[in-house]
Specification:
The complex is a heterodimer.
Chain A: H1 2-7, E1 10-21, E2 24-36, E3 41-45, H2 52-59, E4 67-72, E5 75-76, E6 84-88, H3 99-109, H4 116-129, H5 145-157, E7 163-167, H6 175-191, E8 195-199, H7 203-209, E9 212-216, E10 223-228, H8 243-263
Parallel strand pairs in A: 3-8, 3-9, 6-7, 7-8
Antiparallel strand pairs in A: 1-2, 1-4, 4-5, 9-10
Helix pairs in contact in A: 3-4, 3-5
Chain B: H1 2-25, H2 35-44, H3 46-80, H4 82-97, H5 100-110, H6 115-140, H7 144-151, H8 157-194, H9 201-210, H10 214-243
Helix pairs in contact in B: 2-10, 3-4, 3-6, 3-8, 3-9, 4-6, 5-6, 5-8, 6-8, 7-8, 8-9, 8-10, 9-10
The chains are: A alpha/beta, B mainly alpha.
The structure holds adenosine-5'-triphosphate and magnesium ion.
Chain lengths: 267, 251
Amino acid sequence: MASERNTNFIKIDGVSHTFQTATGNLPVLDDLSLSVPKNGFTAIVGPSGCGKSTVTRLIAGLLRPNIGGVWLKGEPVNSPRDIVGMAFQNPVLLEWRSILKNVMLPLEIVPNSLSSVAREQRALDLLKLVGLSGFEDKKPSELSGGMRQRASLCRALVHKPEILILDEPFGALDAFTREDLWQTMHQLREKEPFTGVLITHDLREAIFLADEVVVLSGRPATTQFKQEMMERGPRSIDQLYTPRAMETLNILREQIKIARQNEGTVS
Amino acid sequence: MRHAMAPVFAIVLFLAFWELTVWVNDWPNYKMASPSDLWPAFWRFKWLFLTYGWETLWRTVIGLIIAVMVGLVFGVLMGFSRVLRQGLYPLLVGFNAIPKATVVPIVALMFVGQHDLNTVLIAFMISFFPIAVSVSVGLSTLEPEYRDILRALGASRFTIFWKIALPKTLPEFFGALKVAVTLAFIGTNLMEIVSPHGRGLGALFDSGKTNSDYPLMFAVLIALAILGIALYYVIVVLEGIFAGWADRQGE
Ligand SMILES: Nc1ncnc2c1ncn2[C@@H]1O[C@H](COP(=O)(O)OP(=O)(O)OP(=O)(O)O)[C@@H](O)[C@H]1O
Ligand SMILES: [Mg+2]
């Protein structure tokens, strides 16, 4: 039982979901199944608008599927749970709070026994880890896009969530900042292991960060393809340019092509 | 320092121009009073100016406070519920479209003699619309991601409102409050002028009119301008305290 809980730390089983819109029904997910082991890191890629963000909202308990179920640690997800931390493409920092207070926000919501000093220390430690020491008292508008995204990551992790959900958090950043943040992600994972789900449209990012990459088909999305990565844990950017990485990249690119071709045929 | 002196300089220049124009054209008092006539008028009625000024001030402020409370309730209801928004919005727009100058005599007759009630009522009626609209728009346009960062942690609707929706709406709210305070002030004065045997600066203006005391009328106008400016800047100061983060001029 315990091992079942660990291999299926996040489990999505036979999920179908249809949105009711003004123009009619929009089937978004179709019999999608997916599982992430404890402390694993899965990247999800797929055509634009295929339902990736919808999957993150299902895992976070923000949305309940029409058909099928989602389990975290073996328990069915019926509503949001504080073992989850989330970060989005838009860092959504609160403009009226300092960076430190922004990072501390989840600690004001999630029940915890930390003193206010301990909460602050926790936030400061994380900010230091992502290289934002000295910016604690700045307002979000005084930071660059990459720095805001770092702060947003700290906020997602401050309450030590067991599960981290990232929905294209690096999508809007330039290539160099993005590679910096990839390294930061590995550091964070090494320091405080978590089970991660990353939505991305950058295949190199998926290969560099994940243990497993899942390709979703076009809408309505189902799991089209899965690829285990060879590496586990921290790796250097150079490894992205090895023949093996190139090969993986090509396989994934081919799969995305297939996913996009099929998009029009199912409606 | 130069910034602080600029308005003073502008006012002095304006008064000098006014005095000069009256003097050059040799206008009599009943056509156009000059600034030098105003001070005697102030001085003669100084107690009335103080007590009536206070009267006008508190009626405006109470009317505005009620407008803020009612506007917030409507704004929150319409901001969170689409059904209520669709239902209430046309009603509010219609209510707001009625020129308040036509409502003033009706209210004056409805509660004849109850000057305080009449005046506060008009100040409230004229000023609550912008507040309701700004709050509802602010809340209904809150990006879902802002809501989700707290909802994903299991926060209650009230917590989300208190920690995110409300502070995020504050800049719009204060923008509307600046409009509302001016409107409430206009409402107060409309009613004070129309109510027979009323009090307040509006009544003083009316008595200046009945007695053809033009310097008094102009003095009331000046007093109203000063009071209006003071009220407006109180809101500006409050805005700086509560929503100063939205001001990016310094960056
Ligand atoms: N709450 C909703 N109501 C109606 N339709 C929705 C809702 N949320 C998403 N959709 C629709 O469902 C589809 C999938 O949306 P989703 O955001 O999950 O896609 P995505 O894969 O994350 O897209 P992208 O790559 O652009 O981020 C889209 O067509 C979207 O318009
Ligand atoms: Mg998305």
